[in-house]
Amino acid sequence: MPGKMLVNETCLSLLGKTKNLRYTMALKIRLLSRPDTNISTNTYLEMIQTFLLHDIQNAVISPFMLEDFTLLSFVKCSDRVNKFSEVYVYLRIFFDSIVHRESFENSLLEFTNLTTTWTFPYMNVWKVKLQKNQFALFLPSFLSKLNKDKNCWVFSDKLFHGNPVFRNVIVDPLLTCPQILVSNNAFGIAWETIKLNFSFKEFTLTLNLFHSFDSKGFRICVRDLPYYIEHYRLGQTEKQPGLILAIVTTICIVISMVCLVLTFITYASFKSLQTAPGLNNMCLIATLFSAQLLLLLRQFLAFKDYEVGTIILAICAHFLWLSTFLWLQVCSFHMFLVFTSKVGLDSRNTVARHVVVRYAGYALGTPVCIVVLNLAVSLIVSKGKETGYDMTSTLFTYKTALIVTFLIPLIVVCVTNVIFYITTVFKIISCPHVGRVSTNKTHFTVYVKLFTITGITWALQIVDAFLTVSMLSYIVAVLNGLQGLFIFVSYVCNVRVFKMWKAVFLQSTSKHPQLTSKRSENTSL
Q1: Bridge partners of 120?
Q2: What is the β-pairing status of strands 168-170 and 21-31?
Q3: How many percent of the chain have pLDDT more than 70?
């Protein structure tokens, strides 16, 4: 920083009084009171120019040259100013007269965080808030990317330029704060990796609240040092639980997928299991397996934000999880019909397939509609810049989309399943003869057990979605990750299926008596 030196590793002003100083201020101006007058945005910006120059002059009490003065508002110039109007300001000034540096810079810094009142025509007093803003710092570079018909900006027509030899300094807390020079890993912190990313309209900027010092280290504000140490170490400690959670989730999902494959093979091997409930189960297993497979792929495939691969995987994952929820709902609904229908349902396989086709239209068509709607709304809101599935770290770009297109359908499924099961139980209790068919009763018992487990896990998932990583996150990861195991235990681990597999095994051994005799001889030996 010009005119400053290191004293005992702390940056202090070299000269109490000096001249030839150049400063840049980046501000955002926000109205705190509702304007009662009908002023256009263009007129408002021109008035702000006048007020700002007057207030700066009063703050520094020293003549200066105005080298750059740009104001921007993200509304049309003809639009009426309202309470929510915001104005971004880029201001560069040069002082060629002698000033008392410490008090002078303190005045500039106070000006970047100020609440004041301005009196507009017709005695309208408007209360405004001035504050530092990172985006405004790069305002001159952004203007060429903006549409003049949809945004409004003005420049000052009275600009002067001081001696270009002297360096430009940004008005920020480092301007007056005592500073310390540190090396990269001082205090156990990798200072080079600390970044503050700022994105706006396809631009990504990296800003630090400290500065590099001639490639020998970093100048840090002494007051901010405890903040950096605390937050950097906190971030490091948060990485470890996240890694453990990812490992636990991966292990559970792999176990689940193996169990899902075994369950699907069981249903595919026995015609007697391929009734309407059985076919519903097979569809549920297929979608859950696919959803969990994509969940693993998203962790290991090296796509970046806004890449086509990221978007495709996120869209497919959203569709498959929604379909999984709806197949759970279909299973519950079918049991509800079995026990409450007065005419009864035909359980023949040919009829069952027609029923399942209709269910598939609902369980697959509804997710398609939701995904397409999310895509359309996201593209419209972002003016074609975002699809709603652009990030690698999350399934959705917007948190609102997570709530509307994921959590709400999940809540609806859970609520309707509870209604279906309560109604079915009431029907069985009030009409005992309804539940006499052993197959239906078995299916219902299995569905109740399965829904009790999955319903709890998804309910916990809804709660955990709004919390940080905690013990609940591990519980949810285990319960949701092992859903395939729960399905396997519910549908395959029973006496009926065991007898079916035993019969198949005995039949295969009877077809190969020589193999059986050889095994017996080897055993005797």
Answers
A1: 124
A2: parallel
A3: 72
Measured in whole angstroms, the distance separating CA 94 from the mean position of its chain's CA atoms is 43
Q: Packing angle between helix 225-269 and helix 276-300, nearest 10 degrees?
A: 150
Q: Are 205 and 197 in contact (CB under 8 A)?
A: yes
pLDDT for 14 equals 61
Can you tell me the distance from the alpha carbon of 195 to that of 513, in angstroms, rounded to the nearest whole number? Answer: 73
Chain segment 311-326, per-residue pLDDT in tens: 899 999 999 999 998 9
Tens-digit pLDDT profile for residues 207-260: 445 555 555 677 777 777 777 776 666 555 555 556 777 788 889 999 999 999
Answer yes or no: pTM beyond 0.70.
no
Which of 98, 91, 100 minimizes the C-alpha distance to 20?
98
Which two structure tokens, joined as six digits, stand for 306?
Answer: 């806004």
Domain boundaries 234-502, corresponding CATH code: 1.20.1070.10
User: How far is Cα 241 from Cα 323, in angstroms, rounded to an integer?
Assistant: 30
Instruction: Give me the phi and psi of 402, to 5 degrees please.
Output: -60, -45
Q: What is the DSSP letter of 83?
A: T
Q: Which amino acid is at 460?
A: L
Task: Output the CA torsion 328→333→335→336 (10° steps).
Answer: 140
Distances (CA, A) of 386 to 304, 305, 366, 375, 382: 14, 11, 23, 9, 6
Handedness of CA 98, 100, 103, 105 (dihedral sign): positive
Give the helix ranges, DSSP H, for 382-482: 399-402, 408-430, 438-464, 471-481
**The residue count for the chain:** 525
- Mean pLDDT of the region 329-344: 75
Pairing of β 4-7 and β 113-120: unpaired
Residue 20 to residue 118: CA distance in whole angstroms = 31
Nearest Cα to Cα of residue 335 among 227, 439, 215, 457: 439
- For residue 346, the one-letter residue type is D
Between 105-114, 157-166, 243-252, 344-353, the lowest mean confidence (pLDDT) is in: 344-353
Q: Where do the structural domains in the chain lie, given as residue ranges?
A: 4-176, 234-502
Residue 520's pLDDT is what? Answer: 44
Cβ-based neighbours of 235, under 8 Å, separated by 6 or more: none
Structure token pair of residue 509: 């051994």
Are 387 and 378 in contact by the 8 Å Cβ rule? The answer is: yes
CA–centroid distance for 20 within its chain: 47
Q: Give, for 45, the enclosing helix (H) or strand (E).
A: helix 41-60
